[in-house]
Amino acid sequence: MTILRLGWRWLLRDLRHGEIGLLLVAAALAAAAVTTVDFFADRVERALASQVSNLLAADAALEWSEPPPAEWEVEAKSRGLVTARTMSFPSVVLHGDATLLVQVKAVSGDYPLRGRLRSSATLDDATGATAPLAPGAAWAEPRLFAQLGIAPGTAIAIGERELPVTRVVREEPDRGGDLLQVAPRLLLRAEDIPATGLVGPASRVSYRLLVAGDEPAVRAFGAWLAKRLPKGAEWLDPSRARPELQTALDRGTRLLSVAAGTVVLLAGAAALLAARRFVERQVDAAAVLRCLGASSRTLVGLVGLRLGGVALAAALLGGLVGVGAQAALAELVGRWFAAELPPPSAAPLFDAALTTLLVLGATALPPLLRLRSTPPARVLRRELGPPPGSALIAAGVPLAGLAAFFVWRMGDLALGVRALAGVLATLLVLSLAAYGLVRLLGPLRSRGRGAWRQGVAALVRHPVLTSVQTVGFGLGILALLLLTVVRVDLLAAWQAKLPPGTPNHFLINIQPAERQALEGFLADRGLGSPAVLPMIRGRLTEIAGRAVDPASYPSARAQRLASREFNLSHADAPQSDNRVLAGRWWAPGTATPEFSVETGIAETLGIALGDRLVFDVGGRRVAGTVTSLREVHWDSFNVNFFVVGTPALLSGQPATYVTSFHLPAERLDLLPELSRRFPSVTVIDVGAVLGQVRAMADQAARALEYVLAFTLAAGVIVLLAAVQASRDVRAREIAVLRTLGASRRSLYAMLAVEYAVLGLLAGTVAAAGALGTAWLISEAVLGLSYVPSLRLLPLGALGGAVGVGVAGLLAVRRLVRVPPIAVLRAA
Amino acid sequence: MTPHSTTVVRAAGLGKRLRGPEGELRILEGLDLEVMPGDAVSIRGASGSGKSTLLGLLAGLDEASDGEVFLFGHALSPLDEDERAALRAGQVGFVFQSFHLLAGMSALENVMLPLELGGVGDARERASALLERVGLMPRRHHLPSQLSGGEQQRVAIARAFATAPRVLFADEPTGNLDTVTGGRIADVLLELRAETGAALVLVTHDQQLADRCDRRLVLEDGRLGELG
């Protein structure tokens, strides 16, 4: 109890006199980075959890690519359940000359069964109210109004029908977040669909039968339906409402956690320096306490209590920063997951405390253990100190702490170890580069004179400390360069790679009767004769005699591919951008049932040459043998298919047609005409879709950038910790120089050189790292031959020199102002 | 317990060797000493004669190379660092040349420190009374850096007597002070010793201060000699 009281009082003193300020800030920064991610993830998790019923707009739902039979609805009602129906599909709407890809949802009058459908009459009213959606009108999301430049009440063409868009949708229960909705929502009544002519026999529509009622009745209906469910139909209960959102959140959180891990690593480096200094400054006190009869346990307890107090204070401080910072993340990407996020809860504060305890424990434990062995005779002979600690403990404890952090954050041992290995490998490469550069500076110290020589000499004198600082800043600058310059460069390089005339518009849902007319339309307007290919929807049911069970695949992608419907096509010859890698393409006009499969999907689903595949096409069994595996150049933007069959096998199946073509920017006015002539055809503007994807990628990058901005702050903390670690020596050097006649101005010049050169090194290392990463992404991921962006080098080096130069001068300016006599007397 | 259990401190055949760059260096050799309760013993010697080393050995701050030290009848060599600290707790006071006050603590807190470590309940009251006794009550909330050298040493003396120790070890208590201040500090130290009846082992090179003790010893060539 006495020790607690003593430790507490000592902690207050420490805080008041700034003894542990840097330790506090370093730990708080780590906690801030972690809790920024955690507060955000927690809000999204709770939004998803609280909306499970709302996410379906019902207690459960049946999803199918065909309209659910009426008898199922009758059965549900006979069990006391209420029902509603929805159907959704992409389409294009027209207003004047403007066309827009939308996600249409047509609903029955009872929709929604759970949650609220809120709408407003004006664009200004952001809250809205619940109101019934009547036939003969459509409602839309705010962005549809913005993109078409219309006001509520304006009529737009939807297929063959004109409908006024009367209200603005403010809350739609089963919409999901923006992540699942690239195109804006257009909501209308199912009764209006036939008149639009948008839905044909093979149209790609997702139908849902929604049910709500007593839980046992819903469950019993689900069990009844399970025995009758056709292939491809899926029974959705709240637990399976939006697994893709949860997966996206988990992945996003992990990515942001790796970014936060970089901050923790740098903050840890700063804490390591600060903790060592803090504990070393306790050696005199420890010797006195030993004289007064304190045991080694008391010693460790007293310092440990103070460090524990610092950890808690840092957790609170970091948590507060995290609460503020997460708001920006929520603003950037919150809507991907839910229309509205609940306010932050206090739960992530626990993570903040765990982070600060880990950071301080891992960094302060080794010097603290040494402190135990402080000889009391130090009160008589100052040269006596604790014996040197074990190198294994000094390196092992921080490393173990870091490993524990990554495993905790990744929630998985293997992932944690991989993330840690990646971060450590990056650090090792940067450290070696930094150390090499510092060594290269060596010969320069004897050249030049005055401020230059002194400044460079200060860096070369402590090569390890200089390298640590270089890496600290280098990581921050690297993150900035990657997310700003490199990202933009790579995207531009990829776009520039697409040859002129690359298709930029897709036409889907072309009905067989429209095919010829559409081909004529394109040819008459000089748009060439692009291949108009048949598209048949089929579900893969068997591979080489084995029934396809999506759950049997380990990867989420394979599970998704195995459970969804394929778009099949048939052709006599492979397309020009396809290359047969294995087997052989069939002879034109062959009567044998054969398939050609794209290599990627064959590998994912475990399909081999010679396997017999069985598809369910509209309830009919279609079987054939895989006789070739193809490589497809998807970035040609031609229409391509994972699975192509022989015409003899597939030409008799119900199909729609699909094509892609290049429409020059100056001829965009053809689109309204095309949509009017072929109202059921959906035009997909690749540029617009890519724009949407790019906008989302930008948001994601900004979110990541936001968390990585903490790395720069951590870089500054590393600098401050390094300055503090060498503060006494530095103060004495400056005092001696001043007594020898050095002016403050010349001292500032010397320090400016030192920190500007340090920044130059950090910027150079960062730019080299950014170039290396860009090369790797370019060559290995995008398949582009990389043209190095050499502006990265001057940008990184000069940016680093200026940034670190200023930060460094600010950090040490106080040392120059202290009268030299005060320093020398203290020494 | 040994036959000499009435002694406060006893050294028998005490020796200390240090390993230096020029080989082994004998600091103390075959040294015997007994300090009885209430004794005031001064040990004088030239700089580097090993006075502080001897003090460290007698107080159990350091380990002897040869011989044995008995503190309150307990042989120190079999004890580890924690056991020696436990033996000192509350029974041994120290005053050092460089004061060794804890920089982050006020004068009052420095004096309270040994009492708090010993779990004494009324630490604040007892520390305040001692500061009053050494004339520093008005400056009790000052940090060591805000006090003069003499004032810091008075705080250190108050701290040394806080637990009413059986023995006080003083290492050049006036060594960092001017003659006048040093004289006053010596007055305070000796008066408090007399009031509490604690034994005193004082090492100094100041003859005047040494002469104010009951027994005066001199350390020369690693051996102790008794003066008058």
Quick description:
The complex is a heterodimer of chains A (827) and B (228). Chain A folds into 4 domains: 1-52 and 253-411, no CATH class; 60-240, no CATH class; 441-462 and 471-498 and 688-827, no CATH class; 528-661, no CATH class.
Overall pLDDT confidence of chain A: 83
Question: What is the CA-based Rg of chain B, rounded?
Answer: 17 Å
User: Are there runs of chain A of 5+ residues with pLDDT below 50, and where?
Assistant: none
The CATH H-level superfamily of chain B is: P-loop containing nucleotide triphosphate hydrolases
Gross morphology of chain B is: globular
CATH architecture heading of chain B: 3-Layer(aba) Sandwich
Distance between the termini of chain A: 37 Å
The number of E-state strands of chain B comes to 10
- Give the helix tally of chain B: 7
CATH class of chain B, named Alpha Beta
Sheet-strand content of chain B, in percent, reads 25-35%
The stretches of 5 or more residues of chain B where confidence is low (pLDDT under 50) are none
Radius of gyration of chain A: 33 Å
Number of strands of chain A: 22
Strand content of chain A: 15-25%
Given helix and strand content, the structural type of chain A is alpha+beta
What does this structure look like?
The complex is a heterodimer of chains A (827) and B (228). By secondary structure, chain A is α+β, with helices and mostly antiparallel strands. Chain A has four domains: 1-52 and 253-411, no CATH class; 60-240, no CATH class; 441-462 and 471-498 and 688-827, no CATH class; 528-661, no CATH class. Helices cover 54% and strands 16% of the residues of chain A. In chain A, strands 2-3-9-6-8-7 form a six-stranded mixed barrel. Chain A has a six-stranded mixed beta barrel with strand order 13-15-20-17-19-18. In chain A, a hairpin with a 2-residue loop joins strand 2 (82-95) and strand 3. In chain A, helix 9 (296-333) packs antiparallel against helix 10 (348-371) and helix 21 (727-739) crosses helix 24. The longest helix of chain A is centred in the last third of the chain and has 40 residues, at 686-725. With 228 residues, chain B is an alpha/beta fold. Chain B has one domain: Rossmann fold, CATH 3.40.50.300. Helix content of chain B is 32%, strand content 28%. Chain B has seven helices and ten strands. Chain B has helices at residues 51-58, 81-88, 107-117, 123-133, 149-161, 179-196, 207-211, and strands spanning 9-20, 23-35, 40-44, 66-71, 74-75, 92-95, 167-171, 199-204, 215-220, 223-227. Chain B has a six-stranded mixed β-sheet with strand order 6-7-8-3-9-10. A four-stranded antiparallel β-sheet of chain B has the order 2-1-4-5, covered by helices on one side. Chain B starts with 8 loop residues before the first strand and ends with a strand.
